[in-house]
Amino acid sequence: MARLKRDERVCPFCAETIKAAATKCRYCQSELTPLVEPEPETKAEPEPETKSEPETKSKPEPEPEPEPDIVVEESSNAPKRTVPSLQDVLLFMRTRLTLVLAVLVVLAATAVGVSWYRAEQGSPAVAPNGALVGDDARTQVLVAAADLTQRTLSYDYKTLANDMEVARARMTPSFLKEYNGTMAQVRPNTEKNKIVLEAVVVSSAIIKATEHRATVLVFVNQTTTAGTGKDRNQQLSRNSLVLTLARGEGDWDVSKLAALG
Fold this sequence. Notes:
Elements: E1 2-4, E2 8-10, E3 17-19, E4 70-72, H1 86-120, E5 125-126, E6 132-133, H2 135-153, E7 155-156, H3 160-168, H4 173-193, E8 195-209, E9 213-226, E10 233-247, E11 252-259
Antiparallel strand pairs: 1-4, 2-3, 5-6, 7-8, 8-9, 9-10, 10-11
């Protein structure tokens, strides 16, 4: 309960203490009907001069008894304005931070679970930017690059048709068309001069690799043997190649092969 003075009352809209003569609440700005009329201002008239009289002893006037304070119960239905304390603000911030951390933990656990599942299923691990990560996955790219380079560049005049079929099995349609055009020009000279071409990859490095496409720098030693017996001629050349691999749901295939320099 709040103690009100005689010239005060409670706003029926916001339950704040205001003057009894107020026509608008200074808290909620609600229009009000004044309970008492404001006293009109009057100019003080000068007191008439009185002749001084001899001082006489008089009995002291009794002091007026203090008026009792009016006690008004606050309405339980009236809206109350509360200002959040520092403890409430800290509790709110701690709750929000806990929720954020919980979400991050769930996301991290999901990422770990997906990586584990992909590893168990033999799927390569991929970074958020799409790059292929993990030693096993990158090693598979290098092994495939060496194998496919040697298949594509190696052939023997005695087994030329079979060698070409082995190479064609691991090519994309676009590169297969290019390979067939090249071998159509090389085949007559290979069979006529009894040429054996052997390519051996001595080193390789991944330039860029994603789950479905990889670019690899390959260093190759190529030995070309022409003729047989005493007329046999053999030459060794060292080449640097850029091999592009593509993969759908299965193995890596040759997509492009270009020589450097």
